[in-house]
Amino acid sequence: MKMTGGGHVRALVMAGGGGQRMRLSGATHPKPLMPVRGVPLLERNLYALLAARIDDIVIAAPASPSKIGEFARGRGALLAKLAGAELRVIEEQSPLGTIGAAALAGEGARSLLVVNADNLTTLDLRAFVEEHEATGADMTMASHLHPMRLPYGELLLDGTRVLEYREKPTHRFRVCSAIYALCPRAIALLDGTRCDAPDLARRVIAAGGSVRAKDHDAPWIDVNDVEAVAAAERLVAEHEGAFDCWHPTPEVQVVGCVIVRGDEVLLEYRPPTARCYAAQWDTPGGHIAAGETPEQAIARELDEELGIRRAAIRPAARFDDLDLTSGRVFRHHVFHAEIDGGVAPRDGQTIAWHRRSHLTTRDDVGVAALRSLAALGAS
To answer: Cβ(140)–Cβ(131) under 8 Å?
Structure first.
C-alpha cells in the first residue's frame, strides 16, 4: 500500500509463538498452520492483507527448521507474488514476544502494520492504517468490546448487604484486538530483544509519545486451542462473504459440487496441462456462462459432464482462491449433492470416488476441493 509523502506501509505477521496452548489441546498442526474451514490461519491473514492492498509483507517465524517458515517461503511467497506483493520471512532466533520482531521488520517503512497469525477478523486493515497515519499517533491499537462469562456467581453488595446475586453473568470488556500500527518513532524504542505489546505501549507513553485506540465492531476471534478453532469455523461460516470472499473483483466465477456417496466423495482429476488448477483432484464443475446464475451453471455442468439430473443440489459455500497455475483469482460457488448410484464421465474426464477421511493427507488434492469439503464438515 503506497502512501503519499514518501515511504510505504509494510505489514508484519507475527507467527513465531510457541503455540503451547494449541498443542496441549490436542492439535497436530503448528498454530499458524491450523486450518479453519480448510485454510491455514496464516494464509487467511495473508488474504486479508492482500485484500487491503498491502504489497510489502513480512512474516516472523520460528528459527529453522520450521514448518511455518517453509509454508511462508513456499505457498505464502507464491501467493503474494501472484497477487503483485512481496513477502519475506524473518526468523526469531530466540522468542521476541508479541511485538519485538517489529524491530527487525520496520526499517524503511513509513508505518508498520502488525497482525497476529492466530487472530481472524474482518476489520478493514487499510482504513485502520490510514486513520493511524492521519492522526499522527506513534502507536495505534485496534480495540473492541469482548464478552466474557464469569465462571462464578457475582454478588452486588452494599456493605455486607446483598443487593443482587447474578449466576455466571456475562460482562463486556474493552480489549486490545492485537492489531497495531507503528510509526518509526515507536519502532525505534525496540532493540531487537523480547518485547510484548503492552511493554511497547508503556515505552511510547513514557517517552512522551501518542498511543491511540481505534474501536471497531468487526467480527474477531483469537484462535488458541482446538475449541477456539471450532468457534472460528462457526464465525467464518456466519460471515462467509467478509472472510472468504476477500477479493473485490475476482477474475473468474466458477461452480463446483461436492458429490457424496456414503463415506466417499467424487472428484475429477485435472491433468498437468490444464490451464487452471493443474495436476490435482478437484470437485466436478466449471465456469459460469454469461447470464447464468450459479444454480443454473452447476445444474448444467453436472448434466453435461456426468449425466446427473435428478439429484437434490444445495448451496454449501462461496470463497475466493488464488489459483497457482494461472495466477488468477477464482470465486468458487460450491454446492453439495448426495447420490446412491454410479456416474460416468461424458466428456472424457478422469473421475474417481475417494474416501473422505483420507483426502486431507494427500498432496494431489487441490486447495479448492479441500475448502469445499471443509465447508461441509467433511474433512
So the answer is: yes
